[in-house]
Specification:
Helix content is about 5%, strand content about 45%. By secondary structure, it is mainly β. The strands form two sheets. Strands 1, 2, 3, 4, 5, 6, 7, 8, 9, 10, 11 and 12 form a twelve-stranded antiparallel sheet that branches. Strands 13-14 form a two-stranded antiparallel ribbon.
């Protein structure tokens, strides 16, 4: 039987340095930390209903931790897990209400995927407001029709957009907390992962010119 707490140590009999390093990485995992930028919200606009994706994981998320998703692969907003209770619903700290099926999500090795592609048993990356990451497994993906809201923001003269469900349980992460999208207003600042270039099949091509609007 396998428990959370196992042996006090592991002995590896090997003179192969690469094998030792691979074993170390397997035990401790390789963190894919990133740099997050602050974007200033310029517009918040309710739109129609759409197919939104809830990503339920096999872990318990912490405050300020969530998935990086967005309408453009160049600008991904940090959407917090449902770790906060409110008068209408209990917290669901295993879940991220991530956005519509067409949104990008940042996954392992710096690649992006569409939310519609995720399914149970796959791995996604959670990030906190410091840009630290950890890998978690997907328990299930729920796709349902819900009212949506468009959030626009700027970094310098660059316009960034994301669409999420218009609900008080959906929160964007800030430098010192998070805010429900139903309460976000122009002038608020939220955390995004911003990069130049384009992507082909989820892999970044730094010198590629691409327009997404």
């Amino acid at each position: 039987m396998t428990l959370e707490l196992g042996a006090d140590g592991i002995a590896l009999a090997s003179h192969d340095t690469s094998e030792i390093l691979k074993t170390r990485d397997l035990i401790f995992g390789e963190s894919e930390d990133i740099s997050l930028s602050t974007a200033r919200v310029t517009s918040v606009k309710p739109i129609g209903t759409g197919a939104r994706v809830c990503v339920d994981t096999t872990e318990i998320l912490q405050a300020g931790e969530g998935l990086l998703t967005g309408s453009s692969s160049q600008a991904l907003f940090l959407v917090e897990g449902e770790v906060h209770s409110n008068p209408h619903v209990n917290s669901r700290p295993f879940r991220v209400n991530a956005g519509p099926v067409s949104s990008y999500v940042l996954t392992a090795n710096g690649k992006t995927r569409y939310l519609s592609e995720l399914s149970a048993g796959e791995t996604v990356l959670l990030f906190d407001r410091s840009g630290r990451s950890r890998s978690v497994d997907v328990a299930r993906v729920k796709i349902e029709r819900r009212p949506m809201i468009l959030v626009e923001a700027n970094i310098g003269d660059r316009r960034l957009t994301t669409i999420v469900q218009n609900a008080e349980t959906v929160r964007l992460v800030t430098r010192d907390g998070s805010k429900p999208v139903s309460e976000i207003k122009p002038g608020d600042e939220v955390l995004v992962r911003f990069e130049e270039g384009g992507r082909h099949f989820g892999t970044r091509v730094a010198d590629e010119m691409i327009i997404e609007k």
